[in-house]
Sequence to fold (921 residues):
Amino acid sequence: MTTLPPRAERPLALDGASLVYNGALIEAYYAQWVQDPASVDASWRRLFESSTRSGSPLPSGPEASRRPSPRAEGSALAKQRGVYELIFAYRTLGHFVANLDPLGFNRYAFDDLELERFGLGEEDLEVVFDSASLAGGGLRTLREILEILRETFCGTLAVEFMHMHSFAQRRWIAERLEGVSIPKSSSGEERRRVLQAILRAEEFEAFLHTRYVGQKRFSLEGNETLIPMLDAVVEACPLHGVDRIVMGMAHRGRLNVLANVLQQDFKTIFDEFSENYFPEGVLGDGDVRYHLGFEAVRKTACGSVVTIGLAPNPSHLEAVNPVVEGKARAWERRLGDTAERRKVLPLLIHGDASFMGQGMVQETLNLSQLQGYRTGGTLHIVINNQIGFTTLPQDARSTHHCTGIARMLGIPIFHVNGDDPMAAVFAIRLAFEYRQLFARDVVVDLFGYRRHGHNEGDEPSFTQPTLYQEIAAHPKISEVFLERLVASGEMSRDEAQAYRKAFVEQLAADMAQSKQWATQAKPKLRERLSCPRLLEPVRTAVVEEELLAIGRAITQEPPDISLNPKIARMLQDRRAVLENKGPILWPLAEALAFGSLLKEGVPVRLSGQDSRRGTFSQRHGVLYDIHSRARYVPLDHVSPDQAIFCIYNSPLSENAVLGFDFGYSLDYPEALILWEAQYGDFANGAQVIIDHYLSSSESKWGTVANLVVLLPHGYEGQGPEHSTARIERFLQLCAEDNMVVAQCSTPANYFHILRRQALRGFVKPLVLFTPKSLLRDPHCSSPLADFSQGGFEEILPDPARPEGARRVLFCSGKIYYDLVAHREKLGESDTAILRLEQFYPLHREKLSRLLAGHRAEDLAWCQEEPENMGGWHYMERRLRALLGREIRYVGREASASTAAGNLGVHRLEQERICRQAFGEG
Fold:
């Protein structure tokens, strides 16, 4: 037998570099193959057999060691290079021509994958080439290479992964897809289970469609493969160490998911279709059934338990995304999984039009790898109906796939044809495994269709006649899949029909119970929400010795850190103020509130744009070494056994970050969670979360957050974009004691309201308008004694004129200090200025009590904001009803813009307000 050359001389399998020609090696292998074909590797056998079949056997003897002619060698190398380029092209572009659309409409020819583009042709199909790393590598004919490429990247499952930033992750994807037979990757029992899940999904929709004609349910028909996909995720959770799934989705298919994945009782679902339905024990206005949340405990086939929480969601389809991420992060904290983040799986289900069309998706994706917001990766599933309400993809996006936005993260995107359920299950399992291994987001794009219109009362053929003719003629997913199982002998049609029949009988029995209930139920109005405890005093004072100890700890210059001299001086000044027992300014009051809560075991989390330093360079919650930027967090050093303190600079985003912190607060209510806007008017960018979650979630869904929203507010001549936090908008949202809206005017009251929020024993959101120029104003200060006694005051009396005043001015916030300064300038002594520190709920009793001590011949509401903004319209009606008198308005004239853009104009307006307040005309 011919002796093979040493190992070092053997050619390596190359991945797109150059092909090493070694005639001696080929001769040795060829001679060995001639003597015993089985003695050489299969790839060499194919090469020699191919050469023999083509009539050009490889030379032997001296001829074999000769280098081929330059022209022949160049041609061979060019073709091999073309093969490498072909492999790269299919990996990169194959998803464009894949068989993804069940209806067959969206199929594309793609010239860039034609053999001629790579210097190859039909005559090369039986030629053996090095296949690089394709399916494990080795020598293969071009025909075999093409078969692997087309099956892997152009079938009913396609993947976008060559845009991924990590070579290791790209290789991981390739190794698990290339050359893998999806039909052979599952057992017959598993295929039966998948079919049964699809049958349940289809029959559930058909049952609702015929029993509740015309009622909206936003059916899943055309995408029922989602159900076995979710079932596969639940079953895989124990294998991957996942204890809890936090799920968010819009209304499409929601009832089906509730019934067949979360296993909500069918009768309960049917009850919700009744006009007499009223959930016992639920206060507020409620919501339509396809917006509601649900919590379930699923027992898997292996006996393990997985908890699934489906978050409620409004019709702003993607608004739930950051809320789910925040809830997931909170549960990771609760489960002690803040390092690896593997025990909680955020799972988001999107629509194709909303995934590409709504900016909330991009904002939430951007949070995924940030320190303060990461959750270990999210599993995204897109229910791709290939249509919006009535809008086709070519009118809705500028990308080929609806998932184009996800490419920014360098994550894999699996596209799968919904008529191939086993490919979909294979894809979701692979995606789940990827998430657990790499802690990154992953997307599965499930191509299907929408059998009905946007809802069941909509007529889609008005706008899409040809599409819906095709849908009407297209067989159900179960029929397509059952055909395969029948052909393979794994299931008979009779068996499938028996399963259908048994399931429908179960639905009918539960519906009969629901109808019996409905005939006995009596329609009734829901009780209104109320919370009288919102006005009860809470003990928030901290003994002086404790405050001093906390203050010394947080003003201690850190060891081994070279501070900026200005920061070192700031710490020294704050310490001196404490030792002198005041006057304490706003930033130190906040730090004392946080520090005292941490010492009492209450965790604190604050996030927002530039919140670590503070927009106005006031907080300095994180200190930095001037040489290395090493970080030191003073509030981490309050006491040895303190609670955890987290402070994060958020991305330049309001909508997603506020949604995240709202979700976090929902599932971690024992902590003080704060979101801070850089300027109060930036809350405009989070209006969807404010309107649909913060203010109304308790009334709609019975879910309420303990979140504090900090909004810098005040007119300092900085122009219309940095003056107002739109107090009027938040007051319009107030009803049924749904939240607290406040504007503190002293550091001590700010200290007490923060502590009250964390300690009062029940949960409500707090919208708190915070100052800007007052942060360093010595007039806006409090002695240490105000922190060690008393509590939050909803209304502050006038310390200079406690009673007997002829004129009473009501105001809130910074304008108080302008009014006081003007009063001193006038030498006026017959005006009392009452500060409203809490707008909602209004403490009427305290207001009446404070007003009773004054003659109050002239009553006026004074504000900086224009007449159509601020607190005027909210307060005027309430003051008039409470006092039985007309209230004079003092403030800027109604305006389309929030403030003047010129500092000089601002000052003139401010002066005019003060003069009018004191009756100067």
